Amino acid sequence: MFSIVTACDKEEEEDYLSTGFVIVDNVLTKYLGQQETVEIPSKVKSISGGAFILNQSIKSVIIPNSVTDIGSTAFGNCQNLTSVTLPDAITKIEDETFYACSSLQSITLPNSVNHIGKNAFNGCESLKSITLPSAITVIGERSFENTGLTSVTIPNAVTVIEEKAFRACENLVTVTLPNALTSIGPEAFNGTGIASISFPGTLTSIGSGAFASCKNLTAVTVPNTVTTLGASAFSNCTELTSFTFPGSITKIDNGTLSECSKLTSITIPNSVTEIEPYAFSKSGLTSVTIPDVVTTIGERAFSSCSQLTSITFPKSVCSYGEAPIVGCENLTDITLKWTSEDGNIDFYNVVFGKYALPLYTIENITLHIPSGTREFYETQLPLQYFKAVVEY
């Protein structure tokens, strides 16, 4: 059998031999060269996924305006790549296009870009700044995770910030959110250096762990438009001193403000009926009044709050998780609101039950009960162990 070699085939072979480019039908399928500065030929219209992946020689890439499409992982793990010039015609940065390009310092996104895919810049530790074009509507999952960004302005066309989009950007101090934003995904800004954040009035949902471990964050006001505040949304924000819940939520989720050691006070809105396990565990709260509409307090909801000295339980509570105040060894005052008309209560297990307060702690606590209810409480609790019992 005979093979026919066309002029086009010969030209492509010469390109490969002399430049390292493998180009088929104007598609750059692979670059096998070792040049530090690479200028892609103007005849190329598309760059295949993985075309440059793991190339440790290239430092700079110039992509001509003839290119309209760059495939996923095209430059993935090019760890010495420092700068990229993108063409004007591309509309999408595909998934993992620049994944783990740890030396990438400079890239300009053309105004035509409207979509940034998953992990597109994940691990670009040297990328300290980027301007996001106004046309962008999608910022994908983990798209800028673990980058060196110090500030970012998210375009107004973005309505959802996806999961872990800016997670672990430790140097990210300033974030401007878009005016039409409705949702912030789980762990979107987890572990960033954000010191303050302003939410738009369109926001309805903040995902689990969205701002957890933001250790420079000092004050947060969540707008009343927010109806969903996910588990551990602001946990371990160790510099947080002020937090305002929205008046629209009905549940404080698991660990929402746990380990916020400098948060000394909080107002729980009257819309809340349920406080989930560990909601305020290991926080710096000194005094807590639980609203009269709360019916459920979860396991260890206020556990290990070492600065907590007083807490008020409403008579509306009908369900307690295990040991909600265990480890609060500086408690001096507990206020209960039940009367005999409310029937028997299970508060014994809250105070004396397994993993609850030790006797030496209870001996320092004054129990406050409604006037005329002492006889009722004597059937519910061993009052003799408290420092004092005061009727109010």
Q: How would you characterize the largest beta sheet?
A: 5 strands, parallel
Count all strands and give the number. Answer: 28
Question: Which strand order spans the largest sheet, edge to edge or round the barrel?
Answer: 22-24-26-27-28
Stretches where pLDDT is under 50 for at least 5 consecutive residues are 1-10
* Global morphology: elongated
Number of helices: 4
Compute the gyration radius: what is it?
A: 29 Å
Alpha-carbon distance between the termini? 104 Å
Counting helices, strands and paired strands, the structural category is mainly beta
Question: What is the typical, i.e. mean, pLDDT?
Answer: 92
Helix content: under 10%
Structure overview:
There is one protein chain. The chain is mainly β and 392 residues long. The chain has four helices and 28 strands. The protein has helices at residues 7-19, 347-351, 359-362, 374-378; strands at residues 21-24, 27-31, 37-39, 46-47, 60-62, 69-70, 83-85, 92-93, 106-108, 115-116, 138-139, 151-153, 160-161, 174-176, 183-184, 205-206, 219-221, 228-229, 242-244, 251-252, 274-275, 287-289, 296-297, 310-313, 319-320, 333-336, 366-369, 388-391. A five-stranded parallel beta sheet has the order 22-24-26-27-28, with no helix packed on it. A four-stranded mixed beta sheet has the order 1-2-4-6. It has a four-stranded parallel beta sheet with strand order 3-5-7-9, with no helix packed on it. The longest helix has 13 residues, at 7-19. The chain is elongated, with a radius of gyration of 29 Å.
